[in-house]
Amino acid sequence: MTASNTLAGHGEFAGKTVLITGAGKGIGHATARVMAARGARVIAASRTQRDLDMLAEEIGCETLCVDLADPHATRKMAEAAQPVDLLVNNAGIVQLQPFLDTTVEAFDTTMAVNVRAAMIVAQVSARSMIERGVAGAIVNVSSISAAIGLPLHASYCASKAALDGLTRVMAVELGAHGIRANAVNPVVTLTPMAEKAWSDPSKARPMLARIPLNRFVQPEEVARTIAYLLGADSAMITGASLAVDGGFLAG
Ligand code: NAP
Q1: Closest CA relative to residue 155, chosen from 93, 199, 206
Q2: E-state strands within 200-244
């Protein structure tokens, strides 16, 4: 771990500690910035130490380097992060393969990072919250892919549908302890992952045409929605899958 957040102590999340996975890039990075700016003590977990070092320099967060595909390393990381009040399971991967050629390796790795790691980190965090009597909040970063079938995204769509299902069970079982669990479901968000899946203009154009607001999402817009679901303004929302999609799923 490195230096603590210089902004902690003021703002909506003053006195709260948030663990954010996949905080090295993209949506997780934006969420770390938003939560730090709103006063939270941020613990950033990700795979590339250099990304974590740069984030720590920027916002003064603590960092944990981990490969979330490894369940034992994931559990150790989650235990080292405790005690936390808030959790954002954001880390995720996509491997594009036609359904007929989807490999067992790609499917298993995608499920391990996108679903299994989220379960393990939430178990460890929720157990600690319950022991301390903390009415915490958990946000799982899912996708519109939980609700629709996208070509080449078999493993990814399966993992995000599973993550939404996991979120609902967490909400149902943890509600008695005052702990809320929700998912956010963004459409294409302009991050390094989106470059991998959507940089080809012939793929991006028809996708864009299906978004009533006619643009892709900025990482900070997802981050602000995550902050809403972590905060007191959403005190009565749990078990939801909240689309951040410019109306895509309404069409
Ligand atoms: P990104 O730009 O690829 O960033 C993902 C972050 O997660 C990176 O810091 C990455 O670290 C980390 N990560 C990935 N695998 C990991 C592992 N095994 N162990 C530890 N850290 C790992 O992705 P993003 O676009 O911000 O996506 C964040 C979340 O939003 C994902 O769950 C994704 O499915 C979801 N989402 C994204 C979009 C989109 O269009 N971008 C849309 C809907 C939902 P390294 O780079 O070091 O591997």
Answers
A1: 93
A2: 241-244
Amino acid identity at 44: A
Fold of 17-189+219-241: Rossmann fold (3.40.50)
CB-CB contact of 69 with 91 (8 Å): no
Beta-carbon count within 10 A of 171 CB:
19
Q: What is the pLDDT of residue 7?
A: 53
Task: Enumerate the domain spans of the chain.
Answer: 17-189+219-241
Which of 25, 185, 249 gets mutated to test ligand 1 (max ligand atoms within 8 A of its CB)? 25
Give 27-42 pLDDT, tens digit per residue. Answer: 999 999 999 999 999 9
The dihedrals phi and psi of 6, each to the nearest 5 degrees, come to: -75, -20
- Determine the atom of ligand 1 nearest the C-alpha atom of 22: 7
Residue 130 near residue 179 (C-beta atoms within 8 A): yes
Q: Taking each helix axis as running N to C, give the angle between helix 154-174 and helix 104-111, from 0 to 180 degrees, rounded to the nearest 10.
A: 30
Interval between CA 176 and ligand 1 midpoint (Å)? 31
The CA distance from 48 to 163, in Å, is: 24
Give the residue among 222, 191, 209, 190 at the shortest CA–CA distance from 248. 209
Tokens of 248: 């895509």
Global pTM exceeds 0.90: yes
